[in-house]
Design goal:
2 copies of one chain form a homodimer. Chain A has 177 residues and is of the alpha+beta class. Chain A has 2 domains: 6-41; 44-173, Nucleoside Triphosphate Pyrophosphohydrolase. Chain A contains 3 helices and 10 strands. In chain A, strand 2 (20-27) and strand 3 (33-40) form a beta hairpin.
C-alpha cells in the first residue's frame, strides 16, 4: 500500500533567519487532498563532551521560545555547506571552550518529524583539551559539569527539559564507561 | 546577570492548523535588539507501550515533512484543553489498538527549544489489553513490535530517526526490566 503523500503544490509563506515555513497541498493515499505545514530548518549538531575524569559538560542558557533557562548538551545549527564534524568541533569550542581529539557518532534523529525538517546529529566528544578564543566568551551561556554517575538521578528528577539532551544522556548512561 | 530576553513586540505571521509562526522583537541582555522566530505548537504525548512479554509497540508511518516512513513510539498532539493522560490513552488506542491499566510519566522535554514551544510528554504504558474501535483502523500506520532485548542493537544500527523515540527507547534500556 503506497503510503507516500504526493505534493501537488508548494507555497513558501515565510523565509526567515533560522527557519522557513511552507504550506504544501498534497494528495494523501486515500486520494483526498490535504495540506501540510512544514518548517524548514538547517540540521543541528549536538555534543556529549566527556572529560577524562568522567564528567559531562552541559550548557545552561535562556531559550526565548519557551521563556526559560534550561540545561542542554552543547549544540548549534550547521551552517550552509558546513561539514557536520567541523560544526561539532566549532560548537564545542564556542560553547564550552574545548576541542576534542575523538568524535564518535551517537545518533541522527529528527527533532519533530511531524512538521519540521530539522535533523539533530549527536556526537560523543572525548580526548578534550581547553581551546578558547576571546570572542567565544559568552556570559549568557554557562557551562555545567555533571558526573556521569549522577545522570540517572538527574533525569529522574526532571532536570532535563530538552529532547536531544534527554536522548543523549540516556544513551550515555547505557554505555559501559 | 539577567539572561532573560525581553519582548518588545510580537507579530503573528501565520496561524495554521498544527502550528502558528510568530516573529518577535526582543531586547537581549547586552541591550541590543534582535528578532526571534517562534513556532507555537500544542504539546504532544508519546507512549512506550510495554507488553507483559517484554515487547515495545512502535509505529511506522510516512512523515511528509521529511519525505520518509520512519519508526516512532505512538504519539500525537494534545487537543486544546485535553488532559495529558487522557490524550496518552487516546493515542494508544487510536494508533496501536490497546488500552493500559498503568501509565507512568517518563519525562517531559521540548522537541526544539531554540525555536519551538512544542513540549513532548512521554509515558510508559503497561498492563496492556486490546481495545480497538473500527474507526481507529488506519492502514497507513503499521504497528511494529520489538523485543526490549533487541533495542540496543536497534539504536546502534541507526534504525531510530526520531528524537523522542531515541530518548524513550534509550530510557527504557536503562530500566531494570
Amino acid at each position: 500500500m503506497e503510503k507516500r503523500e504526493k505534493v501537488l503544490s508548494r507555497h513558501v509563506v515565510y523565509r526567515g533567519r533560522i527557519l522557513n515555513l511552507r504550506v504544501d497541498n498534497v494528495r494523501v493515499p486515500s486520494g483526498k487532498r490535504a495540506y501540510r505545514e512544514v518548517i524548514e530548518h538547517n540540521p543541528a549538531v549536538g555534543l556529549i563532551p566527556l572529560t577524562d575524569d568522567g564528567q559531562v559538560l552541559l550548557v545552561s542558557q535562556f531559550r526565548y521560545a519557551i521563556d526559560e533557562e534550561i540545561l542542554e548538551i552543547p549544540a548549534g545549527i550547521v551552517e550552509d555547506g558546513e561539514d557536520f564534524e567541523a560544526a561539532a568541533l566549532r560548537e564545542l569550542q564556542e560553547e564550552v571552550g574545548f576541542t576534542a581529539s575523538e568524535l564518535a557518532h551517537v545518533g541522527s534523529f529528527y527533532s519533530s518529524p511531524g512538521f519540521s525538517t530539522e535533523l539533530l546529529v549527536v556526537y560523543l566528544a572525548s580526548g578534550l583539551s581547553p581551546s578558547k578564543l576571546p570572542e567565544d566568551d559568552d556570559e549568557f551561556i554557562r557551562t555545567v559539569s555533571v558526573k556521569v554517575g549522577d545522570l540517572p538521578a538527574f533525569l529522574k528528577e526532571g532536570k532535563i527539559k530538552d529532547a536531544k539532551t534527554f536522548a543523549a544522556l540516556s544513551w550515555l548512561i547505557n554505555q559501559d564507561l
